[in-house]
Amino acid sequence: MSKVTTAQDFVNFASMSDAFEIESGKMAHKQAGNKSVKKFGQQLVTDHSKSSKELLKLAKAEKIDLTTPVMLDERHKSIADSMTNAKGKEFDTAFLQAQVQAHQEGIALFQSYSQNGDNDKLKAFAKKGLPVLKKHLEMAQKLSSMPQNTTQTQ
After folding, report:
1. I want to staple 18 with a disulfide (CB 3.0 to 4.6 A). Which of 42, 48, 60, 72 is the partner?
2. Are residues 58 and 120 in contact, defined by beta-carbon separation less than 8 angstroms?
3. b/e burial code for range 72-84 (CB count within 10 A of at least 16 → b)
4. What is the pLDDT of residues 80-121, one digit of tens each?
5. Which letter does DSSP use for residue 145 in this model?
6. Multiple choice CATH, 7-69+80-146, 1.20.1290.10, 1.20.1260.10, 3.30.470.30, 3.40.350.10
7. pTM score, two decimals?
8. Cβ neighbours, 10 Å, residue 153
9. Is 150 exposed, middle or buried (0-12, 13-18, 19+ CB in 10 A)?
10. Is 118 helix (H, G, I), strand (E, B) or coil?
11. In sequence order, which residues have a C-beta less than 8 Å from that of residue 151 and are 6 or more positions away?
């Protein structure tokens, strides 16, 4: 992903990333045991829904083919499926691990494209999105490092 330079590839990867964050964020709202993890899940849904809408609008304006993912790709579906039956602390752990990885990948994608991409408007979109992704990564890492016995349940 760190070598993505075409607008089409960036749009495809970024839209899939948003779809995964929205789906897993919804799962967190229902299945998390820690209220801070639930809140983080809701934040992901809000921020990535906004990003997805903005990306779709930009892709249309730039005449880049984008159909918002209806289903997750195989890799993201596998990650989501692994969390489907988890609840409470078990879910929290799996969810936060997935979020750390997903946001590290997202940051690499957005940094690379913002520097090396072939479409100036999408490069600006990627640059603008980086602080949000970095904030999400920081939140996931912070929540992951919380001692299990001090987590607050709903």
Report:
1. 48
2. no
3. beeebeebbeebe
4. 888 998 999 999 999 999 999 999 999 999 999 999 999 999
5. T
6. 1.20.1260.10
7. 0.88
8. 12
9. exposed
10. coil
11. 33, 34, 36, 37, 89, 92
Joined tokens for residue 148: 């299990």
Residue 31 tokens, joined: 């299945």
Cβ proximity of 122 and 113 under 8 Å? yes
Are residues 149 and 34 in contact, defined by beta-carbon separation less than 8 angstroms?
no
Instruction: Please count the other Cβ atoms lying within 10 Å of the Cβ belonging to residue 18.
Output: 25
Task: Kindly state the tokens that stand for 114.
Answer: 């913002």
pLDDT band at 69 (very low <50, low <70, confident <90, very high): low
Nearest CA to 21 out of 85, 78, 106 is that of 106
pLDDT band at 2 (very low <50, low <70, confident <90, very high): low
Neighbours of 8 (CB within 10 A): 15
